[in-house]
Amino acid sequence: MRLLVTSLFGIFLTLAAAGLASAAAPPGMVTLDTLSEHFAGVSFDHQLHQDLATCDKCHHHTTGETAEPQCAGCHQGRTTATVACRDCHSTQPFSAAFIREKERDRGRYHIDKPGLKAAYHRNCFNCHEESGGPTGCEDCHAKTPAGTVFYNPGSQSAKPAAGAH
Fold first, then answer.
1. Which of 42, 57, 75, 140 has the fewest CB atoms within 10 Å, i.e. is most exposed?
2. Tens digits of per-residue pLDDT, 40-56?
3. Neighbouring-strand partners of residue 45
4. 43 phi/psi in degrees, rounded to 5
5. pLDDT higher than threshold 60 for residue 136
6. CB of 29 within 8 A of CB of 46?
7. What single string gives the DSSP state of each residue in 55-105?
8. In Å, what is the CA distance from 63 to each residue of 10, 46, 85, 160?
9. What is the Cα Rg of the chain in Å?
10. Which residues, including other chains, have CB under 8 Å from residue 86's CB and lie 6 or more apart?
11. How confident is the model at residue 21 (pLDDT cuts 50, 70, 90)?
12. What is the number of alpha carbons within 13 Å of residue 138 lying toward its C-beta?
């Protein structure tokens, strides 16, 4: 019986260690496709960016550990770690449901938290402008047919006023 318990405990430890190792290993490539109605997914080379900057440059407040003392009251000791932007930044920041949620919590610190699209772009643009990386919309993601219709209405758009540029 003792041998069985020891063997089962050993198997448990091995599986737990394997799970922790795989959970801690960052991905090489990530497809950012949350906003895929209008744009094709972005193939994001996580490994390349990981080699250029520290994790907290992009991932902030994600594990309950924070370098900012004023943030510790809410973020310290979080039991759930997250690294996905969409876990905190809404894909629909101007929806009625999201606005009602903000209104319910008047003491909320992150009342100005950007939506997912803005969060992605804020992170990317600052570094890309400094390092000469791509900054044009279609440098990173191509429009889908629905995106082309949405952003280029063609004959459906209003004509510019006389003398306007």
1. 57
2. 888 889 898 888 888 87
3. 29
4. -85, 105
5. yes
6. yes
7. GGGT--S-SS--S-GGGHHHHTT-SS----GGGTS-S-TTSHHHHHHHHH-
8. 29, 18, 13, 50
9. 22
10. 34, 116
11. very low
12. 7
Full-model pTM: 0.60
Structure tokens at 15: 């599986």
The whole-angstrom separation of Cα 18 and Cα 25 is 11
Please report, as a single letter, which amino acid is at residue 51. Answer: D
Q: What is the CATH number of domain 31-151?
A: 3.90.10
Eight-state DSSP code of residue 43: E
Tokens of 149: 């219709």
Q: What are phi and psi of 131, to 5 degrees?
A: -100, 0
Q: Which residues does 114 contact at the CB level (< 8 Å), separation at least 6?
A: 89, 93, 122
Length of the chain: 165
State the chain's mean pLDDT as an integer: 74
Chain centroid offset of residue 153 CA: 29
Tell me: the pLDDT tens digits for 65-124?
555 666 666 666 665 666 788 877 888 888 898 888 778 776 666 767 788 888 888 888
Token couple for 120 = 């992605």
The dihedral through the CA atoms of 85, 86, 88, 90 has a sign that is positive
